[in-house]
Amino acid sequence: MEISVCWFRRDLRLEDNTALYNALNSDYAVLPIFIFDKDILEELPRNDARVNFIHQQLTQINKELGKYKGSLKIYNSSVDEAWEELIKEFNVKEVYINEDYEPYAMQRDERVEQFLASKNIQLKSFTDQVVFKPKQILKDDGLPYTVYTPYKNKWLKHFELNKPQVLPTPNLENLYSSNFNFPSLSDIGFKPSTIQVEDFNLKQLGNYEQTRDVPHLNGTSYLGPHLRFGTVSVRSIISQLKPSDHVFLSELIWREFFIQILVHFPRVVNENFKSKYNGIVWRNNEDEFSRWCEGKTGYPIVDAGMRQLNETGYMHNRVRMVTASFLCKHLLIDWRWGEAYFAEKLLDYELASNNGNWQWSSGTGCDAAPYFRVFNPTSQTQRFDPDMKYIKKWVPELNELTYTPMVDHKMARERALRTYKTGLESFI
């Protein structure tokens, strides 16, 4: 029997899924698959909360498919091994995917496309993770944007002319009839996590502009992990926004801005976007880095943020900026160390946004905060957590008489300015 394959990756939903919708409207019965990629999974802790979340979402999808006599075919192997096995077992004519823009994913998809082409199988890819492809929003001279505001203006102009439509409910009658064995979490080598992904909440958006910087308020959407793993489409989210939600829309555009930076300048994964900062000599004190990771810096707002991250896989966005600035400026520890730690812990980790925001905080990125902008943790606390409701939740032992900062703010700020200035001069 000739079939088409829909390969789920970062699009773990049935509704408004571009690749799935097009596959189900093709001439062939559709086999949905998912690959637990061993090349990625073997690097992760066995109780990784994100793998738990993926497994939960796939369980739900499989349950829904079962109502239409279909099921997910799950592979637990390398991507190459999975495709070799699949092609031997099934007569595949077409493969449908939604594009992924991270370097590993792009290289993987190019490799799979070549393999499928050698078997005379067509790979059909669709835009789904973003509203506009990374190479769709360009400057008038055809070059990519490296400053956010003009990118945002061009994005909004395109959006007014090409508002994406949420797709109709897919016709699941066209599924390949199957009842494949669905692996347990332990079957793929993992165990339950104590950290759970929260449902996203758009009800708070009416006050988003006022509450987004206040850590103790539940003013954020918790949308990040759901966009990361595609349990909801960005089109669907935007279709629910009102004109008054423009600040929240700007955050979604920042996400696409950083994705296009990653695609156009893949070197940013390991390098400063602005090479003039390559001369910075980071202190990279391992003991100080450990204290930052553990939330034991002696600065309550920094410690609260790191403890929230370690315990929940989440950190309030304002506090992310404070903790990142503290690591890079107060401790003079390379932003790549902090970026890697956040990548390990954040439920909503996306390479483009994580990298972009860390380089923004360190001053090395495109459209970044200037190097001489050094967040003062104490004044940030006074502005955004004056009653210390957020801090007291995560640092219950706080006692101002004994809670000693690991570094003096004034000294650290002056040291950072000297170090950055010397680094810039040495590069010239």
From TrEMBL:
SUPFAM superfamilies: Cryptochrome/photolyase FAD-binding domain (SSF48173), Cryptochrome/photolyase, N-terminal domain (SSF52425). Pfam families: DNA_photolyase (PF00875), FAD_binding_7 (PF03441). It comes from the Bacteria. Keywords: Chromophore, FAD, Flavoprotein, Lyase. FAD binds at Y208, F248, E251, L252, I253, W254, R255, E256, F257, F258. Residues 2-131 form the Photolyase/cryptochrome alpha/beta domain. The record marks W282, W335, W358 as: Electron transfer via tryptophanyl radical. Its cofactor is FAD; (6R)-5,10-methylene-5,6,7,8-tetrahydrofolate. Binds 1 FAD per subunit. One of its GO terms (molecular function) is DNA binding. GO terms for biological process: nucleobase-containing compound metabolic process; response to light stimulus; response to stress. Belongs to the DNA photolyase family. PANTHER family: CRYPTOCHROME, CRYPTOCHROME CIRCADIAN CLOCK 5 ISOFORM X1. This is Deoxyribodipyrimidine photo-lyase.
